[in-house]
Amino acid sequence: SATLEEKENRVTEMILTTIEPNRLIIGKIISLFVVGLVQFLVFSVPTVVGYLLFRDRLSLPNLDLSTLIFSPQRLLIGFLLLLGGFALVAGSLVALGAVMPTAKDAGPVYSIMILLVFVPLYSIALIISDPSALIVRFFSIFPYSAPLTSMARNAMGTLPLGTAVLTIIWLFALAALTLVAAVRLFKYGSLSYGERLSLRTLLPGSRSGTTRG
Question: What is the pTM assigned to this prediction?
Fold first, then answer.
């Protein structure tokens, strides 16, 4: 939304006169990650503080945390899965914003992409009960559903270490390719108004054709 809004208001033209496209895109993604972290802290910190200090006044139930298993390995794997998945989705959305001329045109594609990310939630019972099922294994490989599926399996202890490492490498590799494509599309799409940017822009030698056009 931010990318398309800046594009529609012609703000991008002024921004690109002072900063390189790759730095702008990476800065946008990092800022989104920081905003998400701040939102998480805003909701979680008051909840934890309220439970620890005002549990009796608020009549909150006593939670038994003795059954929780603290595993640094699982925490690290979960964080890397979250980071790789976030970078992949954010880069894909920036690329979508560069290709589409308006937010209205990008709406249907955006909805499909978000659906692909959260579709594992509809099969969470199967992920918990039968992690070796074919559909679960497919969700663990498919790029946009892999982060959520793998994080759920990792939390349940059903994600093998080798599979976790391969999934993390797969996500970060795709995220890097997506970021490169997003930067290239943004470089040309930010100055393209009223029509969708052709994906041929990504192909080698397309720059000269775009310039002539």
Answer: 0.74
